[in-house]
Each structure stands twice: as C-alpha cells, then as structure tokens.
From TrEMBL:
The keyword Phosphoprotein does not apply. Keywords: DNA-binding, Transcription, Transcription regulation. Pfam families: TetR_C_14, TetR_N. Gene3D superfamilies: Tetracycline Repressor, domain 2 (1.10.357.10). This is TetR family transcriptional regulator. Residues 19-79 form the HTH tetR-type domain. It comes from Nocardiopsis changdeensis. InterPro entries: DNA-bd_HTH_TetR-type_CS, Homeodomain-like_sf, HTH-type_TetR-like_transc_reg, HTH_TetR, MftR_C. Residues 42-61 bind DNA.
C-alpha cells in the first residue's frame, strides 16, 4: 500500500522525516510480528530492526502494537486520496464519475496490488489481522485505525454530496463504506487467497459495496 499526499500545503521537511521514520518502524514491527508473533517481539526488537534508538520508538508509539498503525492507515489514506482525485472533472473534459462509482473505483484501485511491493504490504496486513484475533491490544489498534478513517471520510463525502458534515446519511455512508472495507480485509486475511483475483480484498470490497448499493432489503433477503 502506498501513502499519497492529499490536499493542502506540502508538509515540512521535518514532518516528512517524522512520517518516514514512523513508517519504517511500522514496517519493521509488521515484519517481526509476521515472523515471530506479537508475544515474541519486543519494542527493543522493533527499534533495532528499524535502525532507531529505543527512545525514538517511544517518542512515536506507546506500545509495540501501536507501531503498526501507520502501515494500516496508509492504505486508507491512499483510497481517500484516490476518491478525491476521481471526484474532479476528467482531464479530457468529460464528467467526473458519480459518487457511488467514484467510491467503488477508488477502493478497488487502492486494494488491487500494482506490483510485488504492494502485494507484500497486503500480506503483512493479512499477518497483522490474523495476529489481532489473538491479541486484544493489536485488535484495538485495527479498530482505532478504522474509526479514524471513518471520521476522515465524513467531510470528504459531505463535500462531494454538497451536504453538511453532520448529515445523518453522510455519516451512515462513511460508516458503511469503512466497515465494508474492514470486513473485506478481515475475511480475506482469514483465508489463503492471493492479494489479487476474485477472492482478493479488492473483489471482496466491491462485492460488499454492491450489496450496500442494493439497500437493506437485499442484504436481509
């Protein structure tokens, strides 16, 4: 999964370095959790693998489980940025896609690996979600990342729909889309399907979004 900058002024060099350090620590934590398990990995192990001092680790993260949050959140940021881009008029002068179509396209694009590095990132996520089933603290990090993603999605959907941020249907849509992605990732992580293909997270997310588009009667039929 790739981080994508979104809107606003360009972050300062200090902010970019801080973010890069956090991502490096997150990758080291994910790799060690996948190889050794959460219980057999310490904060000291993660700091050493990331090439930073232990005090640097604790400057950014309270616990070893917290360290993976940047890795989990970059994928969500990627698809939100893609959604914002799709809502803009097409470069050829054609119309922008409708909001439901833009949401689905951005989610599918973000969850479809574009090469070995993104496949590896998805496999790390699968290992983390499997570990989260047995580790309550890691599971709480996953839920927190999803809650934060939902909150960040609300103003984006509200602006695209021309509604206020506190509009009930906008908040419902943000919650539903976020949970559709979360459930798709959790379902995929529980099996052994490859990151791409008809049983990959992108295909599962598209299936969930189609079900949501049908409304509650179709879901409960």
């Amino acid at each position: 999964m790739v981080t994508a900058e979104s809107g606003g002024s360009r972050p300062s060099l200090t902010a970019r370095r801080k973010a890069a350090t956090q991502v490096e620590i997150a990758r080291a934590a994910a790799r060690l959790f996948a190889e050794r398990g959460v219980d057999n990995t310490t904060a000291e192990d993660i700091a050493a693998a990331a090439g930073v001092a232990l005090r640097t680790f604790y400057r950014y993260f309270r616990t070893k489980q917290d360290a993976v949050a940047p890795l989990l959140s970059t994928g969500a940021q990627h698809w939100r940025d893609a959604l914002a881009a799709l809502e803009e008029p097409a470069g050829d002068g054609g119309p922008a896609p409708g909001l439901p179509e833009a949401v689905e396209r951005s989610v599918v694009d973000a969850l479809t690996p574009g090469g070995p590095e993104e496949e590896r990132a998805l496999e790390w996520t699968r290992a983390l979600l499997r570990a989260a089933r047995e580790d309550a603290t890691l599971r709480a990090v996953w839920y927190r990342v999803n809650q934060e993603s939902e909150e960040l999605l609300v103003p984006l959907l509200a602006a695209a729909a021309g509604r206020p941020d506190d509009d009930l249907t906008v908040r419902l849509a943000a919650a539903a889309v976020t949970d559709a992605i979360r459930l798709s990732m959790e379902t995929w992580s529980a099996g052994d399907a490859p990151p791409g293909g008809e049983d990959g997270p992108a295909a599962l997310a598209a299936r969930c979004l189609h079900a949501l588009a049908g409304g509650l009667p179709d879901l409960l039929r």
